[in-house]
Backbone:
């Protein structure tokens, strides 16, 4: 009975016994990342009339940071003495080592400025793409999102993969009244609190359209799942079965809500038909065990989830329609295995989760068939991974660097950055793309054709 | 010390004297305060009033005793109900020490059929946040089933899990974790334990 607790103590003391943890023997402890070539991009000062100079500088700062955080381009700094007038001097930029040159200009009336971006291919000496972005007032929440969206376009022009700047991360953090849901832009700015429940709020999950967040709350005593409508900023009850309702997740097409609920004292995974606003269907059957934290595959046909049905905590994959659960993390006899918090990547090829290494949670990824297990972190506690829409970046809660917070990791290059500094920030969920030209129905048509090759 | 002792002795002798003087007509229960006996013959009319006053005093005394007894009982009930049970790491089984605690609750819940409880399951901080919610729920349920198996009506218990969000001890070591892996028993209905009952 107490073997679980006791097994941890010797493991943490004897570091010379690498087998006494939950890592399968074919996984090397030690993080291996590929050296990645990132083409250099240079963006000089944005030209602007004097009354828009300040605006132009803050626009430049946001876009440069977004380009850097894409981890696909090497942002190069440039002196202010480089002449920008006249035709583009490709030779000069080539000599400086840039592959891409991004020129920006802010034009138009001060109350309705337009940002014009043009991307030049320095190597082939041609204009790659150009586009104008109408800038909302600087105090408007849409202002930063427009800049993020512009940066994502640039990343796409240069690498043919859209960036992830125009996204947000929802997470749980401590507030005066209890645990609440917060959101922050992908660059760590524009942090704000969403919920105001003054109880325990948990497990936020973005809807695919990005306009709603499902989460669990104790605000009415009995834990239930609520849906927060981001635009009016109101929350309403979504699912309340008898007992506890927890760990909501939307299917990628937005028709189903996966969640877990209490059945005869244990926890099982259900789906709820969002289109018809009715009917919870049970998906897992494991007597005497808990099944929770579902995460759908991109086609919605399968889902990963967490279960202790084998006496250890593991990740399983199951068909949504019917079918049996398949174990995808390694069962290790007589050891304290604790694999939790699965998140199926939007590109479908990997499932991220956290698993204990000598009693300390670390981030792993594995293919949906259980092959190719890979450990991504080793410093501090690292928990609750969530994929960015590019299937390449992961946000997670970590105590690395001595102070807790949310961190973003590029699983390709291994580059890591702090998103939010917070002692109790946890359970992050990365949104899909929130590009306002796609989100706000009416104006969506404006630039859509340019974007789709 | 010496002075106190002297006082004690003189007080005791005064009580003894009073008891002797009071004689056989009175209840043998020890009186906290010696009642100076009035001279019987001087005012015969006051005898009835005197007896009434004595009876009133007696009633008050009995009521006070009853109140104290009930208060002590109430405290006993509350402390038995509030007694926590603890769990092993990542387990929801009822341990032998928890069984003793729950047996005390069983006999008390039989004695007081009006009492209703909420069973709260809690976890230490080590497991994943979400898994701990499920684990806490199982712990609460495991306790509820144990109590039900001794014939206590299921409708008298609600269950809720707080996962790792309501630690008893806010520290990060084995001792704190052992304390935090627990079930709490807040009373939702006191039944006839209520003072006005």
Residues:
């Amino acid at each position: 009975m107490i073997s679980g607790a006791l097994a941890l103590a010797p493991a943490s003391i004897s570091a010379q016994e690498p087998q006494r943890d939950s890592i399968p023997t074919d996984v090397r402890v030690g993080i291996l990342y590929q050296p990645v070539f990132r083409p250099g991009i240079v963006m000089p000062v944005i030209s602007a009339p004097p009354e828009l100079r300040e605006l132009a500088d803050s626009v430049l700062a946001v876009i440069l940071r977004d380009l850097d955080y894409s981890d696909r381009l090497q942002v190069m700094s440039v002196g202010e003495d480089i002449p920008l007038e006249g035709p583009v001097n490709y030779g000069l930029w080539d000599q400086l080592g840039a592959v891409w040159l991004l020129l920006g200009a802010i034009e138009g009336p001060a109350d309705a400025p337009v940002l014009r971006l043009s991307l030049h291919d320095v190597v082939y000496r041609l204009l790659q793409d150009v586009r104008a972005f109408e800038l909302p007032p600087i105090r408007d929440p849409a202002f930063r999102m427009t800049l993020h969206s512009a940066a994502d376009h640039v990343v796409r022009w240069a690498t043919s993969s859209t960036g992830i700047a125009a996204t947000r991360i929802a997470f749980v953090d401590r507030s005066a009244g209890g645990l609440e849901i917060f959101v922050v832009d992908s660059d760590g700015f524009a942090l704000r609190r969403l919920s105001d429940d003054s109880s325990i709020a948990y497990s936020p999950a973005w809807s695919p359209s990005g306009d709603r967040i499902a989460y669990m709350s104790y605000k009415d005593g009995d834990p239930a799942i609520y849906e927060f409508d981001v635009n009016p900023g109101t929350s309403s009850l979504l699912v309340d079965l008898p007992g506890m309702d927890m760990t909501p997740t939307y299917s990628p097409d937005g028709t189903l809500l996966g969640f877990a609920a209490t059945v005869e004292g244990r926890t099982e995974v259900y789906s709820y038909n969002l289109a018809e606003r009715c009917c919870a269907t049970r998906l897992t059957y494991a007597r005497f065990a808990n099944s929770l934290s579902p995460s759908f595959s991109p086609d919605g046909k399968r889902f990963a989830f967490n279960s202790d049905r084998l006496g250890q905590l593991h990740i399983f994959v199951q068909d949504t329609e019917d079918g049996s659960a398949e174990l995808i993390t390694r069962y290790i006899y007589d050891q304290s295995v604790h694999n939790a918090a699965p998140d199926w990547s939007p590109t479908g090829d990997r499932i991220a989760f956290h698993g204990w290494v000598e009693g300390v949670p670390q981030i792993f990824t594995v293919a949906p068939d259980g092959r190719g297990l890979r450990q991504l972190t080793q410093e501090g506690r690292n928990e609750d991974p969530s994929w960015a829409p590019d299937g390449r970046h992961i946000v997670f809660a970590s105590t690395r660097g001595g102070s807790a917070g949310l961190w973003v990791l590029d699983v390709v290059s291994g580059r890591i950055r702090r998103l939010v500094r917070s002692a109790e920030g946890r359970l992050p969920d990365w949104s899909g793309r929130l590009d306002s030209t796609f989100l706000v129905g009416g104006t969506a048509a404006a630039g859509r054709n340019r974007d789709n090759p | 010390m010496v002075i106190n002792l002297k006082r004690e002795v003189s007080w005791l002798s005064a009580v003894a004297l009073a008891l002797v003087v009071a004689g056989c007509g009175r209840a043998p229960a020890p009186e906290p305060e010696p009642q100076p006996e009035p001279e019987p013959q001087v005012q015969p009319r006051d005898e009835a009033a005197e007896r009434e006053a004595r009876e009133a005093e007696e009633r008050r005394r009995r009521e006070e005793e009853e109140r104290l007894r009930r208060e002590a009982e109430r405290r006993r009930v509350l402390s038995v109900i509030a007694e926590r049970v603890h769990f092993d790491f990542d387990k929801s089984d009822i341990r032998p020490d928890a069984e003793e605690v729950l047996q005390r609750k069983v006999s008390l819940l039989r004695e007081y059929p009006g009492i209703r409880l909420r069973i709260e399951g809690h976890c230490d901080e080590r497991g994943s946040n979400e898994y701990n919610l499920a684990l806490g729920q199982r712990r609460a349920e495991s306790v509820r089933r144990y109590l039900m198996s001794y014939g206590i009506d299921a409708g008298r218990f609600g269950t809720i899990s707080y996962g790792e969000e309501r630690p008893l001890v806010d520290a990060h070591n084995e001792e704190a974790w052992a304390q935090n892996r627990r079930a709490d028993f807040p009373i939702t209905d006191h039944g006839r334990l209520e003072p006005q009952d």
